[in-house]
Amino acid sequence: MRLSVVLRYTGLVLLVDATFLFTAAVISLNDGDSALLPLLYAALVAALFGVFPIIFVPSTTSITNKEGFIIVVFGWLLSCAVGLLPYVLWGGEFNLTNSWFESVSGFTTTGASILTNVEALPRGLLFWRSATHWIGGTGIIIFVLSVLPSMGKAGMILYRTEMSPLAAENFLFRTRRTIHILVSIYVGLTVLETAILLICGLNLFDAVTHAFGTIATGGFSTKNTSVAHFDSLSVEIVIMVFMILSGIHFGVLFAAVSGKLEEVWNSPILKFYLVALLIGVGLVAVKVHGCIYHDWGEAIRYASFQVISLGTSTGFATADSSIWPPFAQLLLISFTLQCACAGSTSGGIKTDRIVIFWKAVVRRIKSIQHPSAVITVKLNNASLPDDVVEATVLFIALYLGITFLTTLVLGFLGVDPLTAFSGSAANIGNVGPGFGGVGSFGNYSSIPALGKWALTASMLLGRLEIFSIMVLLMPRSWE
Questions:
Q1: For the chain, how many structural domains are there in total?
Q2: Residues 6+ away with beta carbon under 8 Å from 279
Q3: HSE toward the beta carbon, residue 423, CA cutoff 13 A
């Protein structure tokens, strides 16, 4: 492994962070608030550590797969480390552990927070907090690749390492073209949602920060009560629509924009995703009607928002779902585990893997019934290789295993079972809110320090889809 190459590419990542930190500092300068110096110091640190490797390390477009894995993982870790600087320098509720938690939660688009009073933060710091969502939404490395000239094999390796394997398979374009499609859709959705939220009555700052949180399926809000603060049906509808869109594979969205509607309607993943959300909304609405909401309109309104929010791993809230009936909570937890489609900004196991898993179960049953038959798992009328099916099943097993292990750690630290399990599922799924003490209107401030570090590890494992970090932990990865 060539350390110089790793430093050069992670330096590029830090320069992206520095750009947004300087933007946040400008907002603080305009407001004259107390976050100016913390943001400025953090921006300078990110810029200096980003520029030096680029100046002193020769450019290269040739990197190995191992170097690609290390660049991606280190890029995320360094961004999170730089991202905590404004928080810890500003103070308030931010000690080192809380600052790390907030930073990792932002970049991984988890949206879990330790803040008991979000509105106490200056606007510059609030902008940086939301910007970490937007930077991490498509993936930091993808964002860097989009603004650089052709990087040859290096770009291809970094792209494949950053993207979910399932997502990469669904793009039929060359790496450069694919990256431009991803970023163009990402930016386009953000601009469009911002404009519509402005029409709905939000000011520019709230419109931008909530668009960042929606399109990145992150969930950081500038308000203590999240989207419920606005008490606006039109705002909720807009955010729900864009949450659903952000949970769809961006390749499918590109096909829709390109007029290839037949490809969109024939996607089994998209059908499963939308039907699951629809059924979830219906079941939750039935359970909360009468005991929580006496009007059917209100029951459907709040059930829709919470199901879509958790089902896309966004984590915005318009109601306190911690007081909802147990069945509704269990159904929401199931959406927290599943989430949306590969190739979107959503976290979780992803609907693609759920569909493949059940097809693999059906294949196994048929194989038992017909031992001599050759039965394959098909998706989009194409047979999937056995290694893809195996990787899917292994991923789900590891995912649930890590969730259970994190739950045990939190339980050992004295956290109650509901809070421990739902919080663990919400963090590895990059969803944010759970139930119990970490509900939709709650926060993670009461979680012990060691528990917060365990949850941030879970966030990173979920965002990097487990195997990237596991590869890095193998001793031979460093050779």
A1: 1
A2: none
A3: 34
The answer as to whether 170 is a domain residue is no
Torsion over CA: 205, 208, 212, 215 (sign): positive
Residue 365, helix vs strand vs coil: helix
Q: For residue 271, is it within any domain?
A: no
- Apex 247 CA angle, 272 and 165, nearest 5: 85
Domain enclosing residue 22, as ranges: 1-162
Asked, for residue 284, whether it belongs to a domain, the answer is: no
How is 44-92 classified by DSSP, letter by letter? Answer: HHHHHHHHHHHHHS---S---HHHHHHHHHHHHHHHHHHHHHHHHHH-T
Establish if 459 belongs to a structural domain: no
Token digits of residue 153: 């094999």
* Long-range own/partner contacts, residues 151-158 (CB < 8 A, 24 or more apart): 151/61, 152/61, 152/62, 153/61, 153/62, 153/63, 154/9, 154/60, 154/61, 154/62, 154/63, 154/68, 155/61, 155/179, 157/63, 157/64, 157/65, 157/67, 157/68, 158/9, 158/63, 158/68, 158/71, 158/72
The 10s digit of each residue's pLDDT in 78-109 is: 999 999 999 999 998 999 999 999 999 999 99
Whether the model clears a pTM of 0.85, i.e. scores above it, the answer is: yes
Q: What is the largest CA-CA distance in the chain?
A: 75
Tens of pLDDT, residue by residue over 44-68, are 999 998 887 777 666 666 666 676 6
Calculate mean pLDDT across residues 23-45. 94
